[in-house]
């Protein structure tokens, strides 16, 4: 178990009579590890609610539980969609000061209304959308509804009261409560945000530090996207493997911040492009291939399909371990796809044509990823248009081996690109084959150790 500083864990029992230097806690409390090296059998930890710090017996804590993947899990449980004013009033009964909900106006579609109970009355505030921002009073402006509710829960502003209790929509479960209960909610005040290290499709990625641990923070400001990412996050809480980028937790503040371990060497495409053949040798390429394969074997065992496996979604850690990231499209089943968004050059023919996603379509993508690895980060199907790729691949065309690619590695790619999904090997079979390939390259050879010495790579 990796109890790195910043890891949150759950107390398995009470420690009501703490000795000097020890931390006081109850069963079920969430504690954050601060230091694991102070005393054998003990960790220094901070209590998430009392904020006290002290030593804890390492056998008294357990890992956090995964979040249940539930479509009702919501960052905006107080959002009721399109309901009328009278219906909203009905939902805010019996009266309770600070009880609130947000609805979409029926008369003015697209406009929101904040409804608050106070002094046995319900007040309706129209939320105006102006210059990409939301406002009630033309004084305070917000990026999104989450941001607005967060503000008025702390500050009354021009409302009659601060917001106290959300009236949840039927079936909605507060993501905040679930995250907090299970120990996945992190505290924004403990985060030191650093420089921007990447641009994702939905938001920027920053370097940061959380209680002494280097982290990456993906920020998602749009509330609708943030809501969609809640599902991704719930999936990530279930997964732990050395070759998957590890989720440390999330922060809810003006949207969603997803905090993961920091992968200092960036994505695999950039890693290979910027270093090239003279620095990274075939043995290292095979090790990256094996790393990704093991991560995928684990996903396969969890019956998860990645759907967007590509070298751009593989990140490299400080000690040069490749890990699969970006479970944005990962789904338990194969429904709901937006065809226009599919990464054509990486997607298996049956997935492109019939939306049949499976572990075997991930295997196809893995073959393309292998090609990218041995081509040192080149774009696959060089100089071919997407339309051309679709047609030719369907007709049986396959990419040639990248320059100087070991024949064994190319043979594996070809297996991944069998037209028939069931003829493609699974990830455990692929792992065996890669291990055989790797054993052929002698790590003790002069070339191997020179390579390791030059790059600081694993040998
Ligand atoms: P998206 O999937 O929305 O495109 P990504 O999650 O792939 O966004 O992030 C974009 C870029 O940010 C990545 O290519 C990578 O360079 C950087 N990045 C993302 N996560 C991390 C991380 N954990 N450590 C280091 N860099 C990261």
UniProtKB/TrEMBL annotation:
<protein>
    <recommendedName>
        <fullName>Tyrosine-protein kinase</fullName>
        <ecNumber>2.7.10.2</ecNumber>
    </recommendedName>
</protein>
<keyword id="KW-0449">Lipoprotein</keyword>
<keyword id="KW-0963">Cytoplasm</keyword>
<keyword id="KW-0727">SH2 domain</keyword>
<dbReference type="InterPro" id="IPR050198">
    <property type="entry name" value="Non-receptor_tyrosine_kinases"/>
</dbReference>
<feature type="region of interest" description="Disordered">
    <location>
        <begin position="427"/>
        <end position="459"/>
    </location>
</feature>
<keyword id="KW-0829">Tyrosine-protein kinase</keyword>
<dbReference type="GO" id="GO:0005524">
    <property type="term" value="F:ATP binding"/>
</dbReference>
<dbReference type="InterPro" id="IPR000719">
    <property type="entry name" value="Prot_kinase_dom"/>
</dbReference>
<comment type="similarity">
    <text>Belongs to the protein kinase superfamily. Tyr protein kinase family.</text>
</comment>
<keyword id="KW-0808">Transferase</keyword>
<dbReference type="InterPro" id="IPR036860">
    <property type="entry name" value="SH2_dom_sf"/>
</dbReference>
<keyword id="KW-0472">Membrane</keyword>
<dbReference type="InterPro" id="IPR036028">
    <property type="entry name" value="SH3-like_dom_sf"/>
</dbReference>
<dbReference type="InterPro" id="IPR011009">
    <property type="entry name" value="Kinase-like_dom_sf"/>
</dbReference>
<dbReference type="GO" id="GO:0004715">
    <property type="term" value="F:non-membrane spanning protein tyrosine kinase activity"/>
</dbReference>
<dbReference type="InterPro" id="IPR001452">
    <property type="entry name" value="SH3_domain"/>
</dbReference>
<dbReference type="InterPro" id="IPR017441">
    <property type="entry name" value="Protein_kinase_ATP_BS"/>
</dbReference>
<keyword id="KW-0418">Kinase</keyword>
<keyword id="KW-0067">ATP-binding</keyword>
<feature type="domain" description="SH2">
    <location>
        <begin position="78"/>
        <end position="167"/>
    </location>
</feature>
<feature type="compositionally biased region" description="Polar residues">
    <location>
        <begin position="439"/>
        <end position="448"/>
    </location>
</feature>
<keyword id="KW-0728">SH3 domain</keyword>
<feature type="compositionally biased region" description="Basic and acidic residues">
    <location>
        <begin position="427"/>
        <end position="438"/>
    </location>
</feature>
<dbReference type="GO" id="GO:0005737">
    <property type="term" value="C:cytoplasm"/>
</dbReference>
<dbReference type="InterPro" id="IPR001245">
    <property type="entry name" value="Ser-Thr/Tyr_kinase_cat_dom"/>
</dbReference>
<dbReference type="InterPro" id="IPR000980">
    <property type="entry name" value="SH2"/>
</dbReference>
<dbReference type="InterPro" id="IPR020635">
    <property type="entry name" value="Tyr_kinase_cat_dom"/>
</dbReference>
<dbReference type="Pfam" id="PF00017">
    <property type="entry name" value="SH2"/>
</dbReference>
<keyword id="KW-0519">Myristate</keyword>
<feature type="binding site">
    <location>
        <position position="218"/>
    </location>
    <ligand>
        <name>ATP</name>
    </ligand>
</feature>
<dbReference type="GO" id="GO:0016020">
    <property type="term" value="C:membrane"/>
</dbReference>
<keyword id="KW-0547">Nucleotide-binding</keyword>
<dbReference type="Pfam" id="PF07714">
    <property type="entry name" value="PK_Tyr_Ser-Thr"/>
</dbReference>
<comment type="subunit">
    <text>Interacts with KIT.</text>
</comment>
<dbReference type="InterPro" id="IPR008266">
    <property type="entry name" value="Tyr_kinase_AS"/>
</dbReference>
<feature type="domain" description="Protein kinase">
    <location>
        <begin position="191"/>
        <end position="438"/>
    </location>
</feature>
<feature type="domain" description="SH3">
    <location>
        <begin position="4"/>
        <end position="66"/>
    </location>
</feature>
